[in-house]
Amino acid sequence: MAVRARAAVSSCESVRVAERPEADVVVIGSGIGGLCCAGLLARYNQDVLVLESHDRPGGAAHSFDIKGFNFDSGPSLFSGFQSRGPQANPLAQVLDALGESVPCASYDSWMVYVPEGQFLSRIGPTDFLKDLEAFVGVDAVQEWKKLLDAVIPISAAAMALPPLSIRGDLGVLSTAAGRYAPSLLKSILQMGPQGALGATKLLRPFSEIVDSLGLKNPFVRNWIDLLCFLLAGVKSDGALSAEMVYMFAEWYKPGCSLEYPLEGSGAIIDALVRGIKKFGGRLALRSHVDKILIENGRAVGVKLQSGQIVRAKKAVVSNASMWDTLDLLPPDAVPRSYKDKVKATPQCESFMHLHLGFDVENAREDLGIHHIVVNDWNKGVDGDQNVVLISVPSVLGNGLAPPGKHVLHAYTPGTEPFSLWEGLDRKSAEYRRLKEERSEVMWKAVELALGPRFSREKCDVKLVGTPLTHKRFLRRNRGTYGPAIKAGEATFPGQATPIPQLFCCGDSTFPGIGVPAVAASGAIVANTLVPVSQHSELLDAVGI
Questions:
Q1: Which of 73, 83, 108, 485 is the most buried (most CB within 10 A)?
Q2: Which residues contact 332 (CB under 8 A, 6 or more apart)?
Q3: Model pTM greater than 0.90?
């Protein structure tokens, strides 16, 4: 997957840890959560150092370059970059706090290939209804309208508390509860009794809202499951209602649009790194953390694979998964109950990736940026090799491929069993055979999306990534997408740990999986590590 990083980008130049091996806060990992945390800490005038094992920042959102083709390695479906104010996307709020922006192209649709047929699915309050009527039927339209009528009013309550206002201590009573209680109360009163009743379900599975409305249409139920799975890694019976309600407000309100960074998803990472450096923060690449140092029961720094010790005066923040963080800790420093809970947390499966570079003439003329292929609803959207997502960002982006070329990323979204790959030698014939076999579903999806002009043999670049690739480049335990925590059965842990001065952010913590969620998790840690007065000043500065 990530074979070679893009040509040097000034904002991503790395510092040498040995020159100053200490900081107020050391952040392990440069995923979006870790970068958001570090950016805000730098904005708060904290001396922060981000340590990244890879040769490029971004974690699952990093980009890489092969023969002039700039590939995304992870998320490519974005919205809310241009939003501002209390209800803005958490990532947009962090970028705003750092004085950074990400120029984007806007669009409002993606191609869908499902057992019922294929159609251009459009976001917005009315366009998707037209799609439903044309391709599914009037019954589906009525049920979808019923869902929107119930969910959109609730979204006011779900979005009344800006994620940037949350912190992990009692100061939250000032920065969140006290500051935004009036607007939250106003939104609840405006909902009326039925809406207020729905708002009580925000911390419950989204399926409970769907069930309470009596929605029965198979396509509508399957579509809801698909959206939940793509955003949260679980179907509607496990997705947190608050997260899905937020998404519905983003995608199905008047005037809404999807966005893609003009310079690729790596531009998001570049913007965050620029913000960190602007305020005096540091990023060290190729700096693999081997151990978190514990002294007198407190996290005091880290030891790198090189043997270098890096001291943290105030805190260590891990942007690694909960399982990888546990592996960094001395066994005798971790309470047994915490260790058992982490080990018992179920995991989402891993990914297969297909990265292609090819001539524009090798695809249909009306090619769109995003395509979703569902082979069989009966297998479930979380079924093995059943759903393939395809992104062709060069349709909208600038300079992502050589002139006259396209760049494509296809993947199976967290449904590839790691057990099929575990223990295989990446140089073996067996591994190559399995790569060919398990990538076929992506090739077929690409052929469907790109049309009869597409030829595998004519591709300039062909890269297949497996769960072992995912594990190797992203340092993810078993190459996992993240915790498979179902709302109503368990909750994502908070950012604090049983070890004083050790915090976590990213998709192993509240609010969970997804770009807005991990951005919020990083912000929560940063806010917690500074006084309430500084936190409140920042909220005033960004106008929320």
A1: 73
A2: none
A3: yes
